[in-house]
Amino acid sequence: MPSYSAPIDDTLFILNDVLKYERFNNLPGFADASPDIVEAVLREAGRVAEEVFFPLNQVGDQEGCVRHDDGSVTTPKGFKEGFEKYKEGGWMGLGFDPEYGGQGLPYVLHTAVSEYLSSANMAFAMYPGLTQGAMAAIHVHGTDEQKQTYLPNMVEGIWTGTMNLTEPHCGTDLGLLRTKAVPQGDGTYKITGQKIFISAGEHDMSDNIIHLVLARIEGAPEGVKGISLFIVPKFAVNDDGSVGDANGVSCGSIEEKMGIHGNSTCVMNYDDAVGTLVGEENKGLKAMFIMMNEARLGVGLQGLAISEVAYQNAVTYAKERIQGRSLSGAKHEDKKADPIIVHPDVRRNLMTIRSFNEAGRAFILWAALKSDIAHRSEDKDDAALNEEMMGLLTPVIKGVLTDKGFDHAVMAQQMYGGHGYIEEWGMSQYVRDARIAMIYEGANGIQALDLVGRKLGMNGGRAVQAFFKEVGDFCQDNRENEELTFFTKHLKKGLNDLQAATMWFVQNAMAKPENAGAGSHDYMHLFGLVALGYMWALQTKAAQEKLAEGAGDKQYFDNKIATSRFFFERVMPETSAHLARISTGADSMMAIPEDAF
Amino acid sequence: MPSYSAPIDDTLFILNDVLKYERFNNLPGFADASPDIVEAVLREAGRVAEEVFFPLNQVGDQEGCVRHDDGSVTTPKGFKEGFEKYKEGGWMGLGFDPEYGGQGLPYVLHTAVSEYLSSANMAFAMYPGLTQGAMAAIHVHGTDEQKQTYLPNMVEGIWTGTMNLTEPHCGTDLGLLRTKAVPQGDGTYKITGQKIFISAGEHDMSDNIIHLVLARIEGAPEGVKGISLFIVPKFAVNDDGSVGDANGVSCGSIEEKMGIHGNSTCVMNYDDAVGTLVGEENKGLKAMFIMMNEARLGVGLQGLAISEVAYQNAVTYAKERIQGRSLSGAKHEDKKADPIIVHPDVRRNLMTIRSFNEAGRAFILWAALKSDIAHRSEDKDDAALNEEMMGLLTPVIKGVLTDKGFDHAVMAQQMYGGHGYIEEWGMSQYVRDARIAMIYEGANGIQALDLVGRKLGMNGGRAVQAFFKEVGDFCQDNRENEELTFFTKHLKKGLNDLQAATMWFVQNAMAKPENAGAGSHDYMHLFGLVALGYMWALQTKAAQEKLAEGAGDKQYFDNKIATSRFFFERVMPETSAHLARISTGADSMMAIPEDAF
Question: Residue B319 is nearest to which of A513, A555, A597, comparing CB atoms?
Fold first, then answer.
């Protein structure tokens, strides 16, 4: 009963009018991404999301994945056929290196496409998503032989990939991991150990599954300094590139989870499985972080994606469900009651979600563009600064967009009243699916700590200063634009709160690091609000310019400005509360002794 | 794997030292509730919750209820036996009129007991909970004959009860309801129609089910002025009180829900079912509100109850799970890593939940005591004022405690990392169960509107003024108590924000009611924060007095004060953001035309 329509026009407005991505047509791949190509790609991706992925969403939730006694896993009805269509469309390699069969289009376009697929079917979109993460790690750190062996088939989607980090006793703290790798003298290793929570670990949609596995080489140092990364294929690859014998890896069980039932979350058992090293010995974490960073952006995108589809359905319901009368008098005299969208509190929910979605979409595309510059610019300084800004923004995108994405799925469900709680209406699934995004790829508490404890201070705070400068300059440059005053005034207030919080850490967290940990969650969300506010200021300016030109859909641009106003009036005031909380430090939360809890 | 321990000592501290409930021993039933009786009742209730209800919680979630082809419904394994034990303990009538077999003990004690039962097994506790709501309505509005016919068996738990309001096309807006009642000339009516979302509508635990059903007598006025309330038993009751023939009522299906799987949520079909009128014709809503108000408090209590059990399990996990090291240096050198409770962000989550639970418990018991005064005091003025204050507090308790209860279940789940998402660990169930409490018995948006649109202005705002005075007087009376200054200063700031928001409505919502609707959600939560802050001020003072006396468990009282400080530093600052949002009014949220969404 739910429905989904890809927000193509909004993506186009952001890419063309707000970010003006054509400015970057000197970067490799951007020249191929002319406006008409971009629009064609987005429209086709929207069609695939709506017609292929979305119809499999509820059935995926209801059926889930089934593990058989031989360790094989069957995905829900239709998934295999759906994946064939995805492969045929060439979507896996959209942004990937043409040397291995990819299309080399901008990452920002790949990101826009991924939003639609995750909205339509998050559990299904994870199969290619994990594969793309594995492709990225092999591409950056693999040997030529590894690249030639694995990448072309992965780019085609004939083979898929996974990430294997977590073990039963260690998730966040990878220094505790025990999976061992024993060198065989022929350049290969035998891997033995157990990994848990392996998304897409085993399934029936590809001919081979390429596992990227963190393990400890015999005799390696303790802790994170002794971790290496390995490629461990489900089936050995013969010299001619064909699939050979089964390797010593199997799915021991699949988890019964709260959501994303369509994705097989596996316990993977490695028993003398043959693998090859990726990158240097004991430098596995570094190689893994290539995947992790991409995966974290992908997870942030899931938060946005679920928020968007949940919003669309809440709007439909709010316009159809009649119940009660408007507080200012009946609006639909012809009906027995008004549709609930007339009620301010229903509007409050819808506008809260909407004002997040449209800014969240801009935020993630703005960040993806920085990633394109980081990876494609020939200006090394510019590339390095954009890489650092991406590093700074990654935990904000992951943490804030998934926290809020979940909250908004809950809000959208609330609009349905009792029907929201009944599975057949589909809103419960959005809540249950969105929940995992706050947890995996580094729980959001870890994102906040990464932001405050690592990213803020990197290179003397160069990245965060660049962010402050970009936002501050926008306010300064537009100070005489009266139409924008309302928006820049509120944005500047938020920026001031963020800068004050940053200064508070500088002054109070050096001597007492717990003051940083105690404020990290609030800081991450304060940062997110300023970033989203900045996106609203940019969009407002672009919409005002379009209105002045008299071009395009007036209602669309009016809506943009109205939604921006809502954001600054209703969402942005939270920055003060975040600052107030941060400034109280760690004392009250650490006061009760551990054993007195 | 989860566990539960009833927080009996905390309840006793609140009843004895904070609320000093013995002050009220002139009220009927209170004399029987001596401190040793109260403690004995609570300890036995805790035992029943831990040993009878709790072991059935996960199995209830996993098995759910099954409807058979003949319309009968089987509850999960063990529920029937568990209900027998509940009946044997005499819990159903703990606070009920002794004339019908109840024990007549204070409602505040019944409320304390209900928290434990809902923590242990929310879905199970709903069977008696609905019965008690039905008992209350019959007790207040039923004829002597109806009371004699139904109440004694219900008080014993031999028969259970339900509430039937919702129809497929109407929930909030009961004026739209269509179920019809045709007078038979013999004082009975024949009821025909369909009701949905009927909790405990059909099951195998009682000999008869007494449905209270809203319906429209033929020829009655349209809208809510034509609704009457009927008793419709599943089986007719013979003149000798025994169970007779089946009535024309049956369970058409049971809903597949996000949570509370152990409770059967039924579609109930009435087909010329024989019923008798409760109260006056066309005054059904008034009679139904007796049930609704009690049910709303019960639902608020569910929010607290789930927050409590989820918190307990999060604490256990945080003390056991080792991962990473404290930011201020290793705390447990003997282990490979520190337990995660050393991390400030983990503490932030735990303390946020704890500071809510202990204040929420006090809030609901403080309100329950007002209900006792309202229903038992011989001083009619005092009774009336307390009744009005209960009316004012009911939407706050329902809306705030369930919104926060759900948020806290999510926070507690987050502490488990990936394990929180796996069903067998039990944390997902708390989230899924808690979710319904925000929806049923009037979705929280309706609670907020009830507060702002109806309760605030009643009798010239007498109740809200009394609340402001009580909180303001506490701050004033303790102004020279230096130990309390920190706490009363923050409480006074919150109260000022609440009073400013109230004044804003007075000035801006008369002419434009949408300004009230637009701020209602924030106002309800602002109100909740002040009420919870007041509870913390009261508890802090009581704890300080105990410490001065040197009596009792010093650590317990130190923890109280530390938790109170956390609440005022970390939770209370939100009052400013609520006020800021309220003061922006309805314009930005109503700006986009309905059809432009």
Answer: A597
